[in-house]
Design a protein that fits this description.
This protein has about 180 residues and is an all-alpha fold. The C terminus is likely disordered. The protein starts with 6 loop residues before the first helix and ends in a 10-residue tail after the last helix. It is built from nine helices and no strands.
Length: about 180
């Protein structure tokens, strides 16, 4: 007669990996340190929080995979570092674009330079195609032909939108853009 087995002996041994940490626990534990990293890199608390939130959102979307990494916190920190570099590049491009638009020899508004945030808010207030042309020209330093290629329109159309966009901005900012025919 065969020996009888208990139910515990009859079940095969399990070698399942431990369940990954819930994302919510990870977020609560790491959020403060990740914001601090963003603050150290940018000097701007609001931007640091935005970078951290974007990084955690990206991690959440891929949590099944990222939770299996040896150091998921390192992944989130790297995402913040990369995003801070992108933010720095964007701010640099905006500053260069603003300098090109508002040259030193041009009059300034109320004796002060135009704030980049105000300028780009005004650009966003332009009709969509004008805003796209102005942004591509000043931020990415694209020619009218390159903008036409990006937007799928003619060079003449780009020049019209650039002219109208510049004129609208000049009117609001009280700038004289006569003679600025870069395209």
């Amino acid at each position: 007669m065969l020996p009888t087995m208990t139910s515990a002996e009859a079940e095969p041994p399990t070698t399942a990996e431990p369940a990954p940490e819930p994302f919510e626990d990870f977020y609560v534990r790491e959020y403060g340190a990740v914001v601090a990293l963003g603050l150290a890199l940018t000097g701007d608390r609001g931007l640091a929080e935005e970078l951290a939130q974007d990084a955690f959102l990206a991690a959440h979307r891929r949590w099944d995979r990222i939770a299996q990494y040896d150091a998921p916190a390192a992944w989130v920190r790297r995402a913040v570092v990369n995003r801070s570099r992108s933010a720095w590049r964007r701010r640099s491009r905006e500053a260069r674009a603003l300098e090109r638009l508002v040259r030193v020899d041009r009059p300034v508004v109320d004796g002060e330079g135009v704030e980049p945030d105000r300028f780009w808010a005004l650009v966003r207030g332009l009709p969509a195609r004008q805003a796209q042309c102005v942004a591509l020209h000043y931020l990415d330093e694209l020619s009218a032909a390159e903008i036409a290629s990006v937007l799928g329109c003619s060079v003449a159309t780009v020049r019209v939108h650039l002219h109208r966009g510049r004129a609208a901005l000049a009117q609001v900012l009280s700038l004289d853009l006569d003679g600025d025919h870069e395209s």
